[in-house]
TrEMBL record:
GO terms for molecular function: kinase activity. Belongs to the methylthioribose kinase family. PANTHER family: METHYLTHIORIBOSE KINASE. Keywords: ATP-binding, Kinase, Nucleotide-binding, Transferase. It comes from the Bacteria. This is S-methyl-5-thioribose kinase.
């Protein structure tokens, strides 16, 4: 069903030899090791080491979902990722992997090897605190929000960029998996018997349904900026500072990128902080839960500060005055709360659950899921009374700590 050659370990040196831009960086004759390390839902990922030349990562899209091979998905997603990586790398190079090559025919991108980093979700599960990561991501989202939107681009350039980034198949996955399936009867949904009443209460709540509908509409229609589109903690690599090596935070895996609402990226982070905090809480790690939830306001504060710092450089200050900025920031904050709820709830009800919750013993998992769903209701329905992100996530912490 694929009309292009899918890579395997043995084929990688010959593949590199056929890509001049890549062969200049890595001599295929000096390749010493190739490892397939993909552990996400969708793609193949190879780390290639070469004697005296460092290493490179090759990522190839399969024409199906890796964890569900009977589910076809366009391999062109790789091109959307390359497009976003190039755009984001131009405005936030310290927060994304460097892009070395993009092969539209074989659906492969080559990029910087970040094997000295680890996936943030796993680090959070291990109780580690990567100070600075949340603020880095807030700045990354702000640079992208400003630099790819009508605030940072000439209107014709912004429209051309938007047209290049129309990504209907991947958006459909999000529309279905995040905003629809958890709220209907669907074969993708599964919960513990102990959580059936919690799910019924959440999805049956008219206020929840109205807010989810509004969030889905915003996701589908608010083409504000070229967002990452899937910025959960599994799409973030972190490295702590050691010796002379500085700390580092990188957002990767931008295959869901499209022109969408800026709050969706912040909300993805926030929702995944809720999942990590729910885990920590049921395991009795109250300090870690509080630290994780604090990262929501840390990310927000850095986002807001960076966006405000970029604002004087907007391309059209004639009518885009400071009131427009403040209104936009208010919209992003309110959107992010609803998207956080949607992103957290889908990970405990629908397809593609997360290790934060799934690796808990069953009794603790049931309590964590209950806490996540009650937190999601707060974020969806009650968040409009909050303009203070820190207080909002303090309330989430209270919910998680008192649920049983
Ligand atoms: C079929 S893909 C399932 C999920 O994996 C990605 O990380 C996205 O979040 C998507 O919803
Ligand atoms: Mg992914």
């Amino acid at each position: 069903m694929n009309d292009y050659e899918i890579l395997d370990i043995a084929a990688v040196p010959a593949y590199i030899a056929g890509r001049p831009a890549l062969a200049k960086r890595i001599d295929p004759g000096r390749v010493t090791a190739v490892r397939e390390v993909g552990d996400g839902n969708m793609n193949l990922v190879f780390v290639v080491d070469a004697d005296g030349q460092g290493s490179v990562v090759l990522k190839q899209s399969l024409p199906w979902v890796r964890i569900a091979p009977d589910w076809p998905v366009t391999p062109d997603r790789n091109g959307f990722e390359a497009n976003a990586l190039a755009a984001h790398g131009a405005m936030a190079p310290e927060y994304v992997p460097a892009l070395y090559d993009a092969d539209e025919d074989r659906h492969v991108i080559a990029m910087e090897d970040l094997s000295d980093h680890r996936v943030w979700r796993g680090a959070l599960i291990d109780g580690l605190r990567h100070e600075g990561a949340a603020a880095d991501l807030g700045r990354y989202v702000a640079r992208v929000a400003f630099g790819t939107s009508v605030f940072g681009l000439d209107p014709a350039d912004q429209k051309a960029a938007l047209a290049r980034a129309v990504n209907p198949e991947l958006c459909r996955i999000t529309e279905d998996l995040v905003f629809t399936e958890p709220y209907i009867r669907h074969e993708h949904n599964s919960v513990l018997p102990a959580n059936e009443a919690d799910v019924a209460a959440y999805v049956g709540d008219p206020a929840v349904r109205a807010a989810i509908g509004a969030a889905k509409l915003a996701f589908m229609t608010h083409a504000e900026a070229l967002i990452h589109g899937d910025l959960h903690t599994g799409s973030v690599l972190v490295r702590a500072a050691t010796g002379t090596t500085p700390r580092s935070t990188r957002a990767f895996d931008a295959e869901f990128a499209f022109y969408g609402p800026v709050g969706f990226d912040l909300g993805a982070l926030w929702g995944n902080f809720v999942l990590a905090a729910a885990r920590a809480t049921v395991l009795g790690a109250a300090d870690h839960a509080a630290w994780v939830l604090r990262q929501a306001s840390v990310a927000w504060d850095a986002f807001e500060a960076e966006f405000r710092a970029l604002w004087p450089g907007r391309v059209d200050p004639r009518v885009f005055g400071d009131g427009v900025r403040d209104r936009f920031l208010g919209t992003v904050r309110a959107d992010a709360a609803g998207f956080a709820a949607a992103k957290a709830a889908r990970r405990v009800i629908g397809f593609s659950k997360v290790a934060d919750i799934e690796t808990l013993p069953e009794a603790e998992r049931a309590v964590a899921v209950r806490g996540v769903l009650r937190s999601a209701r707060l974020l969806l329905v009650d968040s409009p009374r909050h303009t203070d992100v820190r207080r909002l996530f303090d309330e989430v912490g209270d919910i998680l700590a008192t649920v049983d």
